[in-house]
UniProtKB/TrEMBL annotation:
Domain of life assignment: Bacteria
Coiled coil: none
UniProt-listed Pfam families: Acetyltransf_2 (PF00797)
Name listed for the protein in its UniProt record: Arylamine N-acetyltransferase
Family membership: Belongs to the arylamine N-acetyltransferase family.
Taxonomic classification: Bacteria, Pseudomonadati, Pseudomonadota, Gammaproteobacteria, Oceanospirillales
InterPro entries per UniProt: Arylamine_N-AcTrfase, Papain-like_cys_pep_sf
Species of origin: Marinomonas arenicola
Length: 284
C-alpha cells in the first residue's frame, strides 16, 4: 500500500476513503463523486482578494481543514496529486473554456487525463455546476451519463496535425461545448500562468462574479451572483437572493461555507445589491 503525505492522507480520509491496494476505476469514481459533493466550486477567495497558493499544504488546509473549496487549479491539483501518489497513470491537461462560443480563449482550466487498463478517461473535479461527477471515457462521440447530466467527448485533428478534444454537455437535447484541450505536455509552471490570469486579470470571470456550486447524483446547487439554482430530477428551481442575511444562510446551509455577516454584506453589496435594486425599480 502506498504511503501518502499527511496532506494527501488528510484529503483521502476526509472523503471517507481508504487507499486501494491497486489502481481501479471504481476508486476513481468514488473519489470524484465524493469530492464534487463535498468540496464546493467557488470564486470566494478570488473576489475577496485572498492569496491562492497551490502547494499541497495550503490546499489541504483550505479544502479539508477550513472547508472553503475553490476553483479548478485548486480542485484538480489536489485530485491529480492523490491519484499520482496512489500509483495511477495521470497526465496534467490544460483546456480552453469555450462555453459554446467560437473564441480564441486562453488555457485557464486544469483537468486530469487518466490511463487505466488500456483506456483513457477525463477526470475533472473543478468545473462547477456543468462539470461531471464521474470519469468520462475519452471516446469520441460516445454519449455518457454522469449523475443528472449527459456528456460526450468529441475529437478532431487540426490543420497542424494536432489532435484536439472537446467536452460537451447535453442541454435542451443538443450538445453544448464546455472546453477544448489537447494532449500536449504541461507542468505546474504552465498552471501558474493560467491560475494568475484567472484570479488576477480584471476581465477574468472569477474576478467579476460570485460563483458557488456543489453537485451529486441527485442535485446540482449553484449560485451565480443574485441567482440561486437547484436542479433535481423533478426540475429546476431558481430564486433571487434579496439580502446579505439570506446570502449568509444559503452559503452555510447549502454549501457548508460559514462566513461572517460583514463578509456576506460585502459580497451582497458588490455582486447582488445593485442589480437587485435596479430590478425592483423596473418592476415599480
Amino acid at each position: 500500500m502506498k504511503t501518502l503525505s499527511p496532506e494527501l492522507q488528510h484529503y483521502l480520509t476526509d472523503l471517507g476513503l481508504a487507499a486501494p491496494h491497486q489502481p481501479s476505476l471504481a476508486f476513481v469514481q468514488q473519489l470524484q463523486g465524493r469530492h464534487v459533493a463535498c468540496h464546493s466550486f467557488n470564486s470566494l477567495s478570488v473576489v475577496l482578494g485572498e492569496g491562492l497558493p497551490l502547494d499541497l499544504a495550503s490546499l489541504s488546509d483550505k479544502f479539508v481543514t477550513r472547508g472553503l473549496g475553490g476553483y479548478c487549479f485548486e480542485h484538480n491539483k489536489l485530485t491529480f496529486e492523490l491519484l499520482a501518489a496512489l500509483g495511477y497513470e495521470v497526465q496534467l491537461v490544460l483546456a480552453r473554456v469555450l462555453n459554446n462560443r467560437d473564441i480564441n480563449a486562453p488555457r485557464t482550466h486544469r483537468v486530469t487525463l487518466l490511463t487505466l487498463d488500456g483506456s483513457r478517461y477525463l477526470i475533472d473535479t473543478g468545473f462547477g455546476a456543468n462539470g461531471p461527477i464521474s470519469p468520462l471515457q475519452l471516446t469520441s462521440g460516445l454519449r455518457q451519463t454522469s449523475g443528472l447530466d449527459h456528456y460526450q467527448v468529441t475529437s478532431h485533428e487540426t490543420c497542424f496535425g494536432v489532435r484536439e478534444y472537446e467536452l460537451q454537455i447535453e442541454k435542451d437535447q443538443a450538445f453544448f461545448t464546455l472546453y477544448r484541450f489537447d494532449l500536449a505536455t504541461y507542468s505546474d509552471a504552465d498552471c501558474e500562468l493560467g491560475h494568475f490570469y484567472s484570479h488576477k486579470h480584471p476581465h477574468a470571470v472569477f474576478v467579476n462574479n460570485l460563483m458557488v456550486s456543489v453537485k451529486d447524483q441527485q442535485r446540482t446547487a449553484s449560485l451565480q451572483n443574485e441567482n440561486f439554482k437547484m436542479v433535481t430530477r423533478d426540475g429546476t428551481q431558481i430564486q433571487q437572493i434579496e439580502s446579505a442575511e439570506a446570502l449568509q444562510s444559503l452559503l452555510a446551509d447549502v454549501f457548508s461555507i460559514a462566513l461572517e455577516l460583514v463578509v456576506a454584506e460585502h459580497l451582497f453589496d458588490r455582486f447582488i445589491g445593485a442589480k437587485w435594486i435596479a430590478e425592483k425599480r423596473r418592476e415599480q
